Amino acid sequence: MSDFLVIGSGIAGLSFALKAAKHGTVTVISKGKLLDSNTAWAQGGISAVLPPGLRDPNDSCEKHIADTLDAGAGLCHEQAVRTIVSEGAETIEELVAWGTDFDRDEDHPALFSLGKEGGHSERRILHAKDPTGREIASSLVQTARAHPAITLQEGHYAIDLITTGKLGVITDDRVLGAYVLEIATGTVKVMESPRVILATGGCGKTYLYTTNPDSATGDGLAMAWRAGASVANMEFIQFHPTCFYNPAATGPEARSFLVSEAVRGEGAVLVNAAGHQFAKEHDPRGSLAPRDIVARAIDTEIKRTGAPCVFLDVSPLGDTFAARFPFIHETLRSFGHNALEKPIPVVPAAHYQCGGVVTDLHGKTSVRGLYAIGEVACTGLHGANRLASNSLLEGNVLARRALTEIMRLYPPGKDIPPAPEIPPWESGDAAPPDELVNIYHAWDELRRTMQDYVSIVRTDNRLRRAAYRLRNLRREVKEFYWGHTLTPDILELRNLVATASLIVDSALLRKESRGSHHTLDYPQTEARFDQDTVLRKF
Ligand code: FAD
Ligand code: SIN
After folding, report:
1. Strands (E), 128-286
2. Is the pLDDT of residue 189 over 60?
3. Which ligand is nearest to the CA of 263?
4. How many angstroms separate the CA atoms of 372 and 402, rounded?
5. How far apart are CA 364 and CA 196, in angstroms?
6. Residue whose CB lies within 8 A of the most ligand 1 atoms, among 196, 200, 239, for a mutation test
7. How many Cβ atoms are within 10 Å of 333's Cβ, its own excluded?
8. What per-residue string of b and e applies to 232-269 under the rule 16 or more CB within 10 Å gives b?
9. DSSP-assigned beta bridge partners for residue 346
10. For a substitution probing ligand 1, which of 37, 47, 92, 156 has the most ligand atoms within 8 Å of its CB?
């Protein structure tokens, strides 16, 4: 039993663990290696309005708030935006104290170097060249490893949350811990804690083309849903405009390699094969408009011209491209592309889950004792479309706020009512080899269905087709799940199907176009849909 059980080792989980460790014992589990997370893949950086003297003199919290509200297309919760943006400076201080080394201004080393991305009216993105996420994640892992109150367990896959409700006590429904598969041994453990923090990240792998690593399979969202938590705004899946298009690629790294928006922030422009800057026809901000607009502009251009991709021309940056973005430059070169010689072929790819498990501004879900922070959660910050580089900020701020609330309501040491005994996990039989083929086929079918029918531009007809196929997949997955020894592949498939179903159900409910949800059947934004799409399990 730990005082705190944290599921996930990205910025949200590890920031929480480092703070909570001052108050009790913390176990952090991660299904892969500690650095297998979206956090470690982040490139552009983290947005924050620093104190006067350290920030661009033109910038202010009010401007960051206005940019976030504008990108969110009328669905951000203003209070959430105000709260999270105003804690930006504290977040940077904390990350620096934990060892993150953000780039400094070459001429004034006391100042941070600030970048820009789509939808930001000022320079306010702190970065560590272009592998910013790796710098943040490594410093958090290193600091957590050194903390005596934190136990880090890699290769531990949370299967499901355990609640009193699931054990038959419905008058006092609260979380008791989680069933966790130790992947190396195949053993399912009961990990008990009255305070469970879901920090499992997003669900990019529901789509065939995504910028996300393999770990992003919507596990936390699906677990929370099964435990009875409400889920909101899942129709708003953000597509990043510039994923490297590489038809010769065989490995997932080459297929999902992101070319940061920060490259456009420094002057690179999107062009078609004829060299025309088509994005300007869609928004006066052109290549640096918010992501939903740019991704749709590319989608339209690809459909209009019949070309498989568009291009990112980095020539306006000259030599600074290689110096400012060495990771991107070298990785592209390793894939056989020299961006200094030829524009980079790019396509949009699923990138970020703007909705998630409904929480308040302390990460509190509708299940007592269960907190959700980071990309898995929906606090109201992102609305219908997240502003670039606001997610690393949100992960850290919500970690701080969740701990404050937990210490107010259920501090370690406070008496907690006794709970029913938790039964051990019951496993099925081993999967015969031909069943494995079915599992892999279902994975592919699911991701292709979402890519083809639930992508950047939607229609009711395509969404209904997706819903029909997902119904069949849910039935098949139930058979795999109950019949066989559990493997991460089966568990991820089960969660992907649940998450994809929540995306499609939410998309079918929103009969308008707004932010990252665009449908040809209802092309306008409508005032009657100025509200979250909340799904509740009864
Ligand atoms: P993650 O960092 O994804 O961590 C989730 C953790 O949960 C992982 O450790 C995972 O293994 C674990 N996990 C998941 N399921 C289970 C389970 N069942 N059992 C146990 N463990 C589990 N945002 C920005 O603000 N700025 C950027 O520059 C930026 N660039 C990005 C670039 C890329 C390529 C990508 C993919 C995303 C980028 N984002 C960026 C988004 C940002 O990285 C994520 O939103 C953020 O890192 C999410 O943090 P998190 O802690 O919520 O989740
Ligand atoms: C990027 O670097 O383009 C990604 C930034 C983000 O998703 O916030």
Report:
1. 150-153, 156-163, 175-182, 187-192, 196-198, 231-232, 237-244, 269-271
2. yes
3. 2
4. 9
5. 11
6. 200
7. 13
8. bbbbbbbbbbbbbbbeeeeeeebbbbbbbbbbbbbbbb
9. 244, 310
10. 37
Integer-rounded Cα Rg, in Å, for the chain is: 22
Place of tokens 């025309």: 276
How much distance in Å is there from the Cα of 381 to the middle of ligand 1? 17
In this prediction, residue 446 carries a pLDDT of 95
Contacts for 329-333: CB closer than 8 Å, 24+ residues apart: 331/257, 332/244, 332/257, 332/259
Which ligand lies nearest to the CA atom of residue 265 in the structure? 2
Q: Is 197 helix (H, G, I), strand (E, B) or coil?
A: strand
Cα–Cα distance between 358 and 527 in angstroms, integer?
A: 22
Looking from the CA of residue 34, the nearest atom of ligand 1 is 9
Give CA–CA dist 340/30, Å, rounded.
38
**Closest by alpha carbon to 413, among 194, 192, 151?**
194
Pairing between β-strand 237-244 and β-strand 310-313 as defined by DSSP bridges: unpaired
456 pLDDT more than 90: yes
> How many C-beta neighbours within 10 Å does residue 226 have?
16
Tally Cβ neighbours within 10 Å of residue 438.
Answer: 14
User: Of 129, 132, 136, whose CA–CA distance to 99 is shortest?
Assistant: 136
Task: Look up residue 108 and give its two tokens.
Answer: 């004034």
Among the listed residues 124, 174, 264, 291, the single catalytic one is 291
Determine the Cα–Cα distance for residues 103 and 23; give it in Å rounded to an integer: 32
The average pLDDT across 420-447 equals 79
pLDDT of 230: 96
Compute the average pLDDT of residues 312-339.
94
**According to the model, what pLDDT value does residue 445 have?**
94
Q: Tell me the domains of the chain and their CATH numbers.
A: 237-349 (3.90.700.10), 433-535 (1.20.58.100)
The full length of the chain comes to 538
Note the pLDDT tens digit of each residue in 7-30.
999 999 999 999 999 999 999 999
CA 233 from centre of chain = 14
Q: At what angle do helices 61-71 and 78-86 cross, to 10 degrees?
A: 140
Is residue 73 within 8 Å of residue 249, measured between CB atoms?
no
- Whole-angstrom distance, CA of residue 520 vs CA of residue 512: 9
pTM for the whole thing? 0.95
